[in-house]
Predict the 3D structure of the following.
Amino acid sequence: MNFNKYKVKPNKDIKLSKINTCSNLKESDKNELKAKLLRDIDEISEIQNKLYAENRQSLLIILQGMDSSGKDGAIKHIMSGVNPQGVWVFSFKHPTSLELEHDYLWRHAQKLPEHGQITIFNRSHYENVLISKVHPEIVLAERLPDIKSIDKIDKSFWINRYKQINYFEKSLIENGTQVLKFFLHLSKDEQRERFLERIENKEKHWKFSSSDIAEREFWTEYQAAYEKALKHTSTKIAPWYIIPADDKLHAHELIGGIILEKLKQMNPSFPPIDKAEEALLKQAKEKLTIGNKR
């Protein structure tokens, strides 16, 4: 599958209202899609095993999207077959008092993957150019030296912050951590249906918060914030992928396919053993074989 059509070109103006949130899948296509997703998960698991053993590279996966866009479900389904020792998932809520004593990237840097690991950020440092842009009073809590009132948070402030994020990700990639960024593009109508399902299904009540409805009132502002972030932070080395999220199965298959493609490009391998170690393995095999015969 060609994933380039989902990739955001650097500095390209984005109008999310003109980008499809649906897959237009036929019912007859879904079984094949499920089968392909399972095959991709198997391959991801195999390559992730090599990544963990090689212990030289790592992968950071960033998932962003409106409330109920399917971030949790994507993690659950796509990473179901991988070695849990090599995968970490972090969600970022409102920063703690300790985190506010540092720059906004500090808490995210603490959770970056170690060599051999895959780390998933369910929401990420991008919240600092999304929710903070919709609610700029959040920036004041960072106690920046030149930002003492909301009127100081101007266009140049956000442009600088986009640049800081780009430098941050460039540094990660240059030091062995590849970055994949997914925006789960959900329609407002589909969000409404998913919220209603959470309200009506007792087993999903825990997923619903009254703040979800409050934030839904800022839908237009969030769409505008995403459009700017996608434009200014989709780079050649760390592009954004806009994933149609109204159809969960299609979204999972796309994300899984892109992750698999990236892991193949990384091409990890099991570490070789030297002749001395090879000789020791041979001796161990002989002892175990002889011991079994006795």
